Amino acid sequence: MYAAIRQAKAKSGSAEELARRIKDGAVPIISDVDGFRAYYVVYAGDDTVTAISIFDKFEQAEEANRRAVAWIEKDLGPLLAGHASAAAGPVIVHTLA
């Protein structure tokens, strides 16, 4: 299991619009990558937005980041206070309820 993680700082007050754009734009792009298993977005109190997607293989997680970063730069730029960072790697601990 591998995770693809993207993180950026959002402009204050943009949570609702970010959520709408992510649901409409990022979810279809990420879920279309082979090996897709799950997608989560966390909006922290300091306006940091973190997206985590789970895949079967490392190459799939990297592909998701490649697609997501291109989409972020094109469609989320006006809502962000800087550039997004991206990382991918193996999930070394996980549990489910």
TrEMBL record:
<dbReference type="InterPro" id="IPR011008">
    <property type="entry name" value="Dimeric_a/b-barrel"/>
</dbReference>
<dbReference type="Pfam" id="PF03992">
    <property type="entry name" value="ABM"/>
</dbReference>
<dbReference type="InterPro" id="IPR007138">
    <property type="entry name" value="ABM_dom"/>
</dbReference>
<keyword id="KW-0560">Oxidoreductase</keyword>
<keyword id="KW-0503">Monooxygenase</keyword>
<dbReference type="GO" id="GO:0004497">
    <property type="term" value="F:monooxygenase activity"/>
</dbReference>
<protein>
    <submittedName>
        <fullName>Antibiotic biosynthesis monooxygenase</fullName>
    </submittedName>
</protein>
<feature type="domain" description="ABM">
    <location>
        <begin position="1"/>
        <end position="55"/>
    </location>
</feature>
